[in-house]
Amino acid sequence: xxxxxxxxxxxxxxxxxxxxxxxxxxxxxxxxxxxxxxxxxxxxxxxxxxxxxxxxxxxxxxxxxxxxxxxxxxxxxxxxxxxxxxxxxxxxxxxxxxxxxxxxxxxxxxxxxxxxxxxxxxxxxxxxxxxxxxxxxxxxxxxxxxxxxxxxxxxxxxxxxxxxxxxxxxxxxxxxxxxxxxxxxxxxxxxxxxxxxxxxxxxxxxxxxxxxxxxx
Length: 216
Hints:
The chain has helices at residues 49-72, 86-96, 100-105, 109-140, 182-187, and strands at 20-30, 34-38, 44-48, 147-159, 172-178, 193-205, 208-214.
């Protein structure tokens, strides 16, 4: 990439100054990953990894329950969409027969093919109908999808350049990395120095500088 000049010292970063091309930081503390869910009403909730797993499990249970209820209401009988079709006629006859197994055994191979093809079409139509009903029911229940973003907070110390780390009083910062990548999580180590690029300052509170970054 193009040369963007030396890293910008923390003391030169302003909350309203826009994205910071590069700055040098020492990582003091890496906090556990948290999960922020934006709810349909616009509010949000932050959970730990354990609580997020529970919330996801509960969400899947509720979705499964709605899907199962709708599927159990489906009529397995022959549909009367196109009764002129050979397969539909055979289906009706089998439904009304006293001994359907005996009747099945007496079908010709052409009749069996017609019946199987009709059954397959009916099954697909039923599945599509169920999928539509489930989708609508989930929307009504506010369960269409979850809007969850993982984030990682890293407490850092701003450094002017690597060798001055011990000689000056360094400003502290808290970097929030939204959607951190697996590589970022593996590469970040407490006590190490990094060149951070593309940080966005959000608020300036006494001695702490709050910055945001995107992982993916």
